[in-house]
Amino acid sequence: MTARAQSGMTLLETLIALVILSLAIIAAMSMTSSARVLNAAAQKRQQNIENAYALSFLTAQFENIAPAVREIRNGVPILDFYGSQSEMRFVSASRSEAETPALQRTAIRTADGKLVIGRNPLTADSRASERELLTTSGKLKFQYGDRDADGRIVFYDSWVDRDRHPALIVVTIESAAPGDSQTLLAAVPMLSTRY
User: Fold this and answer.
1) Contact between 70 and 80 (Cβ < 8 Å)
2) How far apart are CA 145 and CA 166, in angstroms?
3) Which domain holds residue 149?
4) Residue 101: is the preceding peptide bond cis (ω within 30°)?
5) Which pLDDT value is given to residue 97?
6) In Å, how far from its chain's centre is CA 158?
7) What is the per-residue pLDDT for 156?
8) So what's the pLDDT on residue 123?
9) Full-prediction pTM beyond 0.85?
10) HEC secondary structure over 58-109
């Protein structure tokens, strides 16, 4: 055995080994970071798909809002429509002629981080008989637009005891990150003349 072989690795060989080890660590960290980014993108895509489905479902519900009168107050018909920032209740018309009753009460609300859409017959007062149509993750905020005397749209956080439906219903997805909320829908309810 030569003296060189007994002395171990030279400084140059040690530096080369450290460079190779550093490159391997950097590559591993880069792969982990890329996997994290890809996972976050996949989760965001899945959330966008759920939001799109919920949006199309909500749009279908809004298209069926029926102007049902709850009571007459001082000669003014008060429509059966209740809206707050976290819940809406309104009378909707069934699309199916065979379905009875033709008018049903629809409720859309957010609770415990979930969006719930339910429906029950117009005659039922209890939520116990409510049939859930959709439950998905997400917290929504509702706002209601109406035209003022000058014809401008003014938005309200609640809509109750009015003689007409709101001209617009704006639905916004609330995000945990500040400033990251997303407006999903500005819908004009299509009121049928049959009711």
Assistant:
1) yes
2) 6
3) 9-88+134-195
4) yes
5) 59
6) 18
7) 93
8) 64
9) no
10) HHHHHHCECCCEEEEECCEEEECEEECCCEEEEEEECCCCCCCCCEEEEEEE
| Residue 14 placed within a domain | yes
Is 1 a domain residue?
no
> Cα dist. 74→82, 152, 166 in Å?
20, 27, 21
Phi and psi at residue 58, in whole multiples of 5°? Answer: -60, -40
Residue with tokens 């003689």: 163
Q: Is residue 145 part of a domain?
A: yes
Q: Are 115 and 135 in contact (CB under 8 A)?
A: yes
pLDDT of residue 192: 45
φ, ψ (nearest 5 deg) of residue 30: -65, -40
pLDDT at 82: 92
Does a structural domain hold residue 195?
yes
Average pLDDT across each block of 10 residues of the chain; the chain has 195 residues. List them in order: 61 87 89 86 78 74 79 87 90 66 79 76 59 67 87 90 85 67 65 44
Domain count across the chain: 1
